[in-house]
Write a structure and sequence with these properties.
2 domains; Spore Coat Polysaccharide Biosynthesis Protein SpsA, Chain A; alpha/beta; seven-stranded mixed beta sheet
């Protein structure tokens, strides 16, 4: 059975080389770039001729386009800031060589998330299973603006070996990413609600911090875990505040 690695990119010149190097063993490498303004496309072409540049339609549609370009039996979706470890590569090779059961549509892969140079094991960030390895014919991504889902046909199982995910290399990077994601999150929130109270903003903000730090064990990661928990609460607060602002933008003062 053959496998294609699919990566979507936007201004990822710092990551794309190491990412593609980690999946160079795949039968196909497919990069779908959203009109990057840096050297992402140039660097990607050093690894594969299958580099496609197109306007950004959303996470799900962009990944679906990449899947459609593959001629392989199986698809491995990798983010540009992720790396496939040797252990994961070996596990995937052994799995496909043995022939997965016919009723299995895909596999969830654990992910080690690194924040500010440290692997965060608490706060609900590990094992962080992601459905990333699947038969090409087993489904499609939906069109949710944030946290798109792969709608799988068939049974799923889990692999043991993880991705490495350099999610937030610096606090500055975290802030920039948070501002983009909270806008998308507010858009999704407004599809489901027509009113946001001050009580909801406050309780979700504080509740997220406490849940991340204590219920999910973020305290075990020391100061790193504290910073992650505070950012998680801030993310929730900003998302709700943006949604609240939009709901009240056109109302009379």
């Amino acid at each position: 059975m053959t496998i294609a690695a699919v990566i979507i990119t936007k201004d990822e010149e710092q990551n794309i080389g190491d990412c593609l190097q980690s999946v160079r063993w795949a039968d196909e490498l497919i990069v779908v770039d959203a009109e990057s303004r840096d050297r992402t496309v140039e660097l990607a072409k050093g690894y594969t001729p299958k580099v496609f540049v197109r306007a950004w339609p959303g996470y799900g549609p962009q990944k679906n386009f990449g899947i459609d370009q593959a001629g392989s039996d199986w698809i491995l979706v990798v983010d540009a800031d992720e790396r496939v470890t040797d252990g994961l590569r070996q596990e995937i090779h052994a799995l496909l060589a043995g022939g997965p059961p016919a009723d299995i549509g895909g596999y969830e892969i654990p992910r080690r998330n690194y924040f500010y140079g440290k692997w965060i094991q608490g706060g609900g960030l590990y094992p962080d299973y992601q459905l990333r390895l699947f038969r090409k014919t087993s489904g499609r991504y939906d069109d949710v603006r944030l946290h798109e889902n792969f709608v799988l046909q068939g049974r799923r199982e889990r692999l043991r070996e993880p991705f490495i995910h350099y999610s937030m290399p610096t606090v500055h990077h975290h802030i920039r990413k948070m501002m983009r994601y909270t806008t998308l999150g507010a858009d999704e929130k407004l599809k489901r609600v027509s009113h946001i109270s001050g009580w909801a903003i406050a309780t979700h903000h504080i509740g997220t911090i406490l849940k991340t730090l204590f219920t999910r064990g973020g305290y075990r990661d020391g100061v790193h875990g504290l910073v992650v928990a505070m950012f998680a609460g801030l993310h929730t607060f900003v998302k709700y505040a943006k949604a609240w602002e939009r709901l009240n933008a056109h109302r009379e003062p």
